Structure formats: C-alpha cells, structure tokens
Amino acid sequence: MSSNTFGKILSVTTFGESHGPAIGCVIDGCPPGLALEADDFRVDLDRRATGRSRHTSQRRETDDIEILSGVYEGLTTGTPIALLIRNVDARSKDYGNIVDTFRPGHADYAYWQKYGIRDPRGGGRSSARETTMRVAAGTVAKKWLAEHFGIEVHAHLAQIGDVVPRGFDPAAIETNSFFWPDADQVPELEAYMDALRKSGDSVGARVTVIASDVPPGWGEPIYGKLDGDLAAAMMSINAVKGVEIGDGFAVVTQNGSVHRDQMTADGFTSNHAGGVLGGISTGQAVVASMAFKPTSSILVPGHSIDKAGNPVDVVTKGRHDPCVGIRAIPIAEAMMALVLMDHALRHRAQCADVGPVSPRIPGSVTEGTP
Amino acid sequence: MSSNTFGKILSVTTFGESHGPAIGCVIDGCPPGLALEADDFRVDLDRRATGRSRHTSQRRETDDIEILSGVYEGLTTGTPIALLIRNVDARSKDYGNIVDTFRPGHADYAYWQKYGIRDPRGGGRSSARETTMRVAAGTVAKKWLAEHFGIEVHAHLAQIGDVVPRGFDPAAIETNSFFWPDADQVPELEAYMDALRKSGDSVGARVTVIASDVPPGWGEPIYGKLDGDLAAAMMSINAVKGVEIGDGFAVVTQNGSVHRDQMTADGFTSNHAGGVLGGISTGQAVVASMAFKPTSSILVPGHSIDKAGNPVDVVTKGRHDPCVGIRAIPIAEAMMALVLMDHALRHRAQCADVGPVSPRIPGSVTEGTP
Amino acid sequence: MSSNTFGKILSVTTFGESHGPAIGCVIDGCPPGLALEADDFRVDLDRRATGRSRHTSQRRETDDIEILSGVYEGLTTGTPIALLIRNVDARSKDYGNIVDTFRPGHADYAYWQKYGIRDPRGGGRSSARETTMRVAAGTVAKKWLAEHFGIEVHAHLAQIGDVVPRGFDPAAIETNSFFWPDADQVPELEAYMDALRKSGDSVGARVTVIASDVPPGWGEPIYGKLDGDLAAAMMSINAVKGVEIGDGFAVVTQNGSVHRDQMTADGFTSNHAGGVLGGISTGQAVVASMAFKPTSSILVPGHSIDKAGNPVDVVTKGRHDPCVGIRAIPIAEAMMALVLMDHALRHRAQCADVGPVSPRIPGSVTEGTP
Amino acid sequence: MSSNTFGKILSVTTFGESHGPAIGCVIDGCPPGLALEADDFRVDLDRRATGRSRHTSQRRETDDIEILSGVYEGLTTGTPIALLIRNVDARSKDYGNIVDTFRPGHADYAYWQKYGIRDPRGGGRSSARETTMRVAAGTVAKKWLAEHFGIEVHAHLAQIGDVVPRGFDPAAIETNSFFWPDADQVPELEAYMDALRKSGDSVGARVTVIASDVPPGWGEPIYGKLDGDLAAAMMSINAVKGVEIGDGFAVVTQNGSVHRDQMTADGFTSNHAGGVLGGISTGQAVVASMAFKPTSSILVPGHSIDKAGNPVDVVTKGRHDPCVGIRAIPIAEAMMALVLMDHALRHRAQCADVGPVSPRIPGSVTEGTP
C-alpha cells in the first residue's frame, strides 16, 4: 500500500521493527551531486538519541548508520539512497509481559484488530524507533535545502505541561537538553522532570518548528497544499495529536482585521499565517507547531485486557521518556525539511519556466508566531 | 501533479474556478452497486450553500448538480463518477478592483509568485467555491459508509470567537443556522454576528466532526495513518490553520495516567485519543477538530501592494461570510467521510482475510471529547 | 483507485461512458503560460473522428470540446484543465440486443465478472469513445513539447493485415485516410478494405509512432523507465495487444554485434534501441510500435452466452470500423506525447541543476526503425 | 520520485548498485499471516543465478537473503518486509576500463546525460543485478497467489535466435538449463550457445510467461488495466524491447472472426486474447511474451566515445551471458506474479462486495498461445 512511503518526488520509505534485526529507509528522488557521507547523520541522530540526559530513555542506541546505495565517491548519484541501522541493544525481555496484553494508550490493540497478528517486542513497527530513519532522511533534506536555498530548519520545545518559555533566545535552544529557548528556566524544568519521573508518570509537550528563507511559491493547491502536507507529516509522528500552522487554534478568537498579514513594499507586517496562504508559501518563515501526548508507557498501573479478554492491570517497566516531546525536536525538523524539499522539487517540475516574479516582498517578519 | 486529487483507493479530483464556466469533480474507485441520483446531493449542498441565513454570504448558488458518468439505471457501476455544477451567479464585477491588487490574508500573492499568472475573478481556484465539490463527493462517501457500516458523520460549531457551547445537545445542531449544539445560545450568537457584520470585520471558529461506529483496524502505519490522512484532509480546507485528533492540544498539559484511555471488557473508559492509536482506529468514535481563521475579505481597510509594487489600501466589498467556519460544517463532514471510506477500502485490500479479531472491546465512550 | 488517471506530474483523468451524457478529462500539472483554446483540439479530434472516410465507422461525433477550467485569458494558469464533450449522436437502440449478451472478444463478460453490473450502451466505459479525451489531452502535450523542445510526434500505419508499406514517405501520411506512408498503395488498401467490409469481417493493424528531437536524459530507472511508461500507455489503448520499442521483437534473432547502436562523435550509427537505453532517452528518435487487434464488432456471427448462461449467436450490427488501427493514429501520438511531457517535467524535478552534460552526441539516426 | 517503486497496493521498492555494499528491497502491503522464511527465496534465486551452467555468466552470486523486517515468528505481520543481499563477488577491476567510456548498447551514456554522474562499477544501478530483488519479491507474490487462489506462474524460453521449440512439454522446462519446453532440442541449443560464445557475440530471445487459474474480474480500466500494468512490468526488465499479451503482434494479420475468443457454456473456444479483455482478466490463462535483446556486453569490438568525446573501441571482457533471456525466466515470472497479486488486492478493495458473479464460464483453454 506504500503506506510506509512519504513524499511525492522526494520519497522516503522506512522499514523495520523496534527489536527486529535492523531498521532502514530508502530515499528516492534526491537530485544527483549532493555530498553525503555517514558522518552527516551523526548530529541529528545524537540529538534524537535516547540516553542524552537523564530526562530521556536510558536505552543505548548507537545508531551507526550505513549507506548501502545511491552514493558514489561521496556524491549522490540520483539513484535510491538506502540507509541501514542494526538494532543492537534491544532488551526484548523487558517487554515479555506485554506479549499477551494490550497496553492502554498504545497501538497494541489497534494493530491486533487490524492485522490479527503483531510483533509485540518493543512495540514492533509502532515503536518510536522508526523515527530514527525519519531523522536520517531529514538530514539529507536539510543539507540540500541549506545548500540550494540557504533554508534553515529549527525546532524547539514551546511548552511542557503547564510550563511555557518566558523568553525566546534562539541561541539557548541547543545549549540545554530540553531544547528550551529560555536558559534561565532549565533548572525549573529539571526539577519538574525529576518529580515527574519519581511519580512514574509522564506529561505532554508542544513543539514548534520554523523554516526560514523559504521562497514564495512552494506548495500546490488543492490537496497538495504545503500546509496540508505539513499536517500529514507532523500528525504521522508518533504521539502527535494536534498540528498548527502559524497562529493555529488561536485564530478562533481573532478578528479578520487582526489576523490577516498586511503587506507593504518593505515586507509583511506580521506572520499570523505561518508563511502559507492558499497552501502556497508566501516567502515568510514557515511555522508549524504540534502537540505531543504524554507517553502511555508509565509506572502508574492502568486497566486493560489481555488477548483472552480478561481484565489485567498494566505497568510498563522498560526504559521510557517521561516527556517524548523532547526527543521529537529533530523529528519535527526532519518532517518539515522533507516536506519542503519535496515541494521544492514539485515546484520546479511544474513552474521551472516561471522564473522570479515581481513584485516580490522583501524580508520576512515572524511576529505573531511563535 | 495530481495535486487536485485526494485519496488513494477512493480518489476525488476536483476542478474549476470560482467564476469560470463550471466546477466539477471525478470520483474514482467507488464500489459498484451504490444507489445514487442527483437528489442525493441536495441536503449537504444546501447545508453548505450561502444565502441560507443572513449570517452567511448572500451569493445565490443554485448548485444544481449533474451526474455525467459512472451511474447506470440509478446504481454506481464502478467507473468514475463525474459531477458538474455550472457557475451561474458570479458577479465578476464585484471583484474588478482586485485584479491588480493582492488582498492581504488571501492566496492572491502566493499564487502570483508561484505561477506568474492568476485568475483573479472571485479568487479563481483558491476560492472556497471548490469545496462545493468536496461536499458532493462527501455525500457519496457518507452514503456508502452508512449503508455498509452504519457509520454516521456529524460536525458542529464548537467555538466562535470567545463563545463556547454551554451544553451539548446533538439534536439542536441542525435546528439553527450556526450548527450550534446549545439552542439556548442562538439569540446570543445572532446578536454577536450582527454586531460583527456591522463592524465590517470577521471572526474565527472551531469545528468538531465526529464519526461514530467506525470499526477498529482502519488506518495504515506509518505514513498512511488514519489521523495523518485526516490532518491532511482537514488542513486542505480553505481557512483551516489547525487540526486536532481527540484531545488535541489539550494533551500538552495532561499526564500519561490521565490521557491514556484505559480498557475494560465492557469498553474503553474514556476517549482522549479520539478513536485513533498508532494511526489505526480503535473502535471508538473518531473525533477531529479544526480551527478556521477569520476571513480576510472584510470591509475594514488593510494595507497591501499592487502588481506594480505600489502600496494600496484594500477593502473587499463582495458578499462574504463574517464567519466562514459556519459553512464549513458539511465540508468537515465530507473530508472525514472521504478519508474513512478510503481507509475502509484500503483496509479490506490488505486485510480482507483477517476477519473479526477477538477480543473486541464493545461499545464506545466519547467522554473526553468533544 | 485512480485507475482512470494517467501520468505522474502531468496527470490526466478521464471519465464518461460511450452513451452517457458526456465524456471529459481533467489535466493536472500542466505548467502555466501555455496558450490554449478550444480550436487547438480540432485537428487531432478530426483525425481520430469516425466518419472521416467510408473506411471508418459512420457515427457522427461532432466532438465539440469545451474548456471548463484552468485557462484564463487564453493562457493556462497551472490549475487543472477540465475538458468536456457532450455525447450527441448515440443511437442506443443499436445496442439493445447486447444488453443481455456478452459479445465475444469484447470487455462485456470481463466487466460483468468484475463489477456485477455494467452499462451496456455502446460498450459503456470500455468503448473506444474514451480515447477521444486521450487525443484531447495529447494535444496539450504536443503543443507544450513543440514549443519547449521542438519535439514532433507523428504516427503512421505500418501494416494492415498482410499489407506492409513498400516505401516510406513522411509527407504521404496525412494525405490519405489510412495514414499510410506510401501513397501508391492507397488504391490497393481501399480495395482491401472494401472487400473486408463486404465480408462483414475486420482485420488487425500495426501502428508506429516516432518522436523526434527528444533530449537525452528523460526517463527514470527502474520502474519509471521511459519505455516502461510507454508500454503501459500504449497497452492501455483499446485493442492493443503488443508494444515494441525500437526493433522490438526483431531483436530475438539479432546478434549483439548487430543490435547495439554504436556511437561516434558525429552521432549514433543506428537506432535499433528506439531511442531508449536503461529506460532513459539517448537523444535519438523515440520509436514505439503497437499491434491493434481486429475489432470483434463484426457481422460474422459468433458463439457466446447470455446472462442466463444460455448459448447465443452474436452479430454486432451498429457502426464499426473494419480496422480500428486506422483511427488509432492520433491516439498513439497522444499517448507518446503525454508520456514524454510527463517525463520532461519529472526530469527537471530531479535534475534541473544538472544542466547540459558533455559530451553530447549530435543528431539522430533513425535507421533500424521503422 | 518513487521511480524505484512498483505496484499500487502491493508495492516493491528496490535499491542498490551492482558493486555497492548491498542490494535490497522493501515489500509493502503484503497481507498478514503469510508464512515466510529466508529459505523460501532459494529456488528462484538459484534459477536466476549466474553460474548455473556454462551458458550463463560465471559470476558467483551467493545471493543469501536476509529478512530484515515484517516477519514475526515465521509469519508476515502486514508491515513492510525488507530483504537484503550483500554483494560479495564483485570484481570491480573487471570494469576499470569502462569508467571513462560509454559502452554501446548500454545505459552508460543515457545515465551520464541524465545525472551528470554515474557509478560505472558493473553498470551500477542499471545492472541486471537489480532483478535479483524482483525475483525475491516475486517469490512472496507467487506464494501468496498459490495459497489463496491456486494460481501457478511459469515461464519458458520460447525462442532463441532463430530456434523455436518444436514441441511443448511443460514437464521439460525445468529439466534443462535453457528452460526449453522441448528436451530433444537441448543438444542443438548447447551447440548453438557454444558457437556463440566462441564468436564472442550474443543473441536475443523470446520468453513467454503463463499464469493459470487467474479468476475473472482482475484489472482496472482505463489506465490500470491488467495488461497495461503487465506491459510496464515486463518492459521495465533490463533488455526487454517488446511485450505481447496473448497473440500479440500476430493479431496484425488476423481477422476478427478468427481472433475473437468465442464463448460457450463449457468454456472459451480459444485464448487469442491471452486472458485479458478490456484490461480485465477473463478467467482464462494470462499469457505474456517479451523480447529480450542480445546483451551488448560482448567481445566483438564496437565503436563508441569516451567522456572527453574521443572515439574509442570497446570490448566488454567481464563475465556475461551470451543470451540474457535465459536467466530472465524467473524475473518474468516474478513480474507477472507481482502484477497479479497487486491486482488481486486492488480488486477486493473496490469489489469485495460483488461476490461470485454468474454466469461464470468454466475451465480455460490455452489454444492460440503459446
């Protein structure tokens, strides 16, 4: 069904189960001539990796990636780029107690109802381990977008439980293990997370991802809209329950005279739209936010049933993140980058002849969001 | 680019501009044997139509649909169903003043930057007129889902500006022109809308759509998730800036012990997930919400530029809705129905042999959402 | 299932039954700025039309096309181009005797087995009437290819029954109603066809289509090969039972030292490959041939069964062509043009940055085929 | 561009270069519950493998396949099945002389013109090595078709150079290294091939593949026809230059009264159509033939140019097959099986409710072809 494939011209197919022999992906449609080596994947895989701090799962994933195809003498050749990571530290025994049980809030029951069979080890295909390959594929897209358009894609944690950033300092985001834009709040967050871990519970989070320097004109009406594709991309990330473009749900209480981004010869006066109008980029920063649910893998016992239909109480021991939103930062960036690169290629397919169109509004204002 | 086509097995292609000769769609993949006639489209097209009350645009759209193909002696034959509506009441003159101007908050500038050419009459392809054909296609899907699974799809207005429903009476929704679930608040809403119209401004809205009796097992990991496809479908509706499944952004402040929907042999104890886990339906009601921005077609003057790059002030006279979310009710239902029918067909393609899987949790609880 | 849609970036969706209200198509992905008006479709629709000579079916199809969308002030806008033709001269009564009978050699029985329902009037969806819209869509592709690359696409009849062209004069092809490249043989063909018509029988034909001035580098390995897509396109034409690229089945008896097209700085020394190697164009003329079966709609009685399973004898009266290959000339051109334009757009999506690559072999030699 | 992906519901994505680290594929959409283990792939990989006899290339390909995902406890789970084969015996030095040269009749020049870069080792992506993964994926499809419908898919060599089978004994095909249906001719073929090898030349071949017991009703009009998809599948195999369904090009000289397969209550009286009418299976054996060109990798020197545009003479030493059609037998079967399984799934997606349709013509006659 190609349901494990994402993207139209730049397409990414992922495969693999959490505790199977390996996970991998095939990236098809990448233009030739892009410099690419295994080391390029290191930074983002580390940013996603568990074990980076005590606030994320302690599973050690070495995530050593192997490039199996599509690269010759350090350059992409235009043929499919296959990437592979062997699964090495999968303690299947940790999950032994869930083979016959459907964990509440997990995909166990849904997969069972769909397929009548499931690989229960570590959540099998529904595990967040799959997102490793999204991050890897996203690295290729980020690199291409930066080289060809100077586009930068950065995400940050915009809320965790009731805590919201008091300030917004882009430079702070990568200096703390929460990807939090206000360094002063980090101790407060650490205390919050420690208490949460002690309670055996988890909490949700809000992540915002911003792509700067996106040219105007990317995106396709009507069902291939840039924001429609972003919504699908973001909602397909494990644990995401909501997606916003620009002001998102805040528009419900706005008046039209406030919301519409006015234009002047010097630039837009605001960016409530999040850089997309009619499904097409406007030249402003493209801004998307998403809501991550609290993981259901917690120590607090929950009611469920087993395969025989009998009631059981479930406690998920394993190694899990009290806030999965934190590790999702590079995943959100990857999905944004993949959608943008796909649309860059789609745009030139249909509109390569159009050329620069005047008048073009200079600069971009990000007031409004975040 | 097939960007005007939606759906994988049940696919819908729409065409047409707001003030061109006609709009239409081609529905491909509908199973044979479904009874279908032009009258079937009447109810939802009327629910969407402008001119239904003084709170929506006064443009008269007769929206008389013609079935051009795919139906023989009152039954679908399995071949493509083409539907056509001629555009009859398009006062192009109303839009004459915007031929050389980019309206702020509209797709004018984005289309111009993409294509270097645009049909400015009534917004051309970016007009909400396109959604007429979504509603028509949705009628086919609703009918098929009801006949085959007893699925009902209903949407309602869940917020308009700062006003939220005080009560939730499903029976009230279709009795008032706001699709509002609390009949007592209707006079308040009318006063609110009258004041808004006088001020020449507009306001946003929140719409929630609920599908009941969806079987478990629909949806496809990883990039063909039911909620991922719903997100794309909803975000592709004009003016939508946010999509939620189940509790949506409320999950950010929830704990895992609260959010996860526990299971008993008698049913789920809550539906925070909105009926989808791991991208697959759980058998609970599927619940999606979306944020509609306030229309930018307002009488309040706004700054913009014209094609020569000169600053202009824009006032959009025409006939417009102060709250476009109201008319979006049947559109939201249509997109939900189209996604569900597509997934019903996709499910049986891959899993027709699986058959009913036990244990199956009975009933469905909708507590949590809306 | 989108099975009525063809092409990846330039996609064409057709709809309509032979004797329904109308047939039409939606062309999606056409670049903006192409001049297009209803008159552009006239020439090829006439070339395809029945009634052009006494050797093709006498049904009068006015085939007046209406452009419903996607064109503004004479130029394509980048949005979907919908085309419509009303069915006017459909004598359904001619087909009354086949409502309950499956004509041998037709799709009647296959459709019945698939759908359990069928529109029997004139063959319904399986009628060659559908190819009218292929021709119309092909006109757009031909025009675009000619303007952007100087590509010309021309087909001719290369065999009819046992008769093969003695000479090959491109200028002769459009001067006779057989699209035959040797004018001297036309009287012989007329006598052949008259005798055939008198006998109430039909005969097969071979059609060859050649696209000149196709740049090298179009086509995509592995499953999006230019020749693979051509094969699908040609085989999807009604009555086609075989497709060849370049020398086709003649390669079975060739030696490698003969078949391979050698290269010199002045050009290829032959074109046995038909302009495609590894699925990618070489810069030589792209050459495809196809075999059209003799129509099964003949006056010679044939054995069949009716819906009740009883044996019946079938005579198809109606108005039919004794050699459907003749009318297929513009259809073959259309499919070639659509595939080429799709690949032109796909090529620039992935390889727009590559630019002209040296060394480029000049000219093109068409020796070998036809 | 997903151009390395084949199939709509059962989709196969292949990756890998001839002399890269590995080749592999991802099979998506396979129904759950199919028994599958690495040993299942052995038979067909051996049938395809080089080194089986002195008449095929002497490269040793162990082709040990590893299942990376999608199988749990010996059963498919419905998630993507990834297969991997490491490249072990790739003597890159053999190809050193072609790094700067475009071999005539190969894809070298076409890839170079498309991408401006190519992996020359062993032909890189354009190598027939890719077909190993087609064979592997085909094994899954064959197994599923046999278990669910009793469908058998068998190919044989139907012509090599001027030699055609004198008799047709299905039991003989697998008893000789030529997959030849007349055992008496094997000595003659061996002498033919020995002489060919000595001359340093190669020759073409004709392969026919037959699928028996295909139910009626598979295939989708108009652009998703069973025969259209078969044509694309077959033409995408390396070296194929022609595809026929049923009688193929022989229809050119047939009369309609001969070609049409008449129907009786006891069965069809012939199978000129090759089991497909209107793009939909009729219940007869599905028959396809293809023409394989003689490999261009021969010892006979040929003219070409190098990267600098200078004339060169090319001799391809390496290890190559004098007749690549022989090894293509399991590849042809694989593509037939993949297309059929895809259509089986597509059929039940749209038509699962239709059920058995009467009257159904019993049995099947294969007279006519081969």
TrEMBL record, chains A, B, C, D:
Biological process (GO), any one: aromatic amino acid family biosynthetic process
InterPro entries named in the record: Chorismate_synth, Chorismate_synth_AroC_sf, Chorismate_synthase_CS
TM spans (from-to):
none
Q: Name one GO cellular component term.
A: cytosol
Cofactor: binding comment:
Reduced FMN (FMNH(2)).
The metabolic or biological pathway listed in the UniProt record of this protein is: Metabolic intermediate biosynthesis; chorismate biosynthesis; chorismate from D-erythrose 4-phosphate and phosphoenolpyruvate: step 7/7
Which reaction does this chain catalyze?
5-O-(1-carboxyvinyl)-3-phosphoshikimate = chorismate + phosphate
Positions with a binding annotation for FMN: R125, S126, S127, N238, A239, G278, K293, P294, T295, S296, S297, R319
Q: Which GO terms describe its molecular function?
A: chorismate synthase activity; FMN binding
Provide the E.C. number(s) assigned to this enzyme.
Answer: 4.2.3.5
Does the keyword section mention Thylakoid?
no
**Necessary cofactors:** FMNH2
So which domain of life are we looking at? Bacteria
Give the enzyme class.
lyase
The answer, when asked if Flavoprotein is one of the entry's keywords, is yes
Residues binding NADP(+): R48, R54
Q: Which UniProt keywords apply?
A: Amino-acid biosynthesis, Aromatic amino acid biosynthesis, FAD, Flavoprotein, FMN, Lyase, NADP
- Could you tell me which NCBIfam families the record lists for this protein? aroC, PRK05382.1
Give the family this protein belongs to, as stated in its UniProt record.
Belongs to the chorismate synthase family.
Under the subunit heading, UniProt states: Homotetramer.
**What does this chain do?**
This reaction introduces a second double bond into the aromatic ring system.
What is the designated name of this protein?
Answer: Chorismate synthase
Protein's organism? Luteibacter rhizovicinus
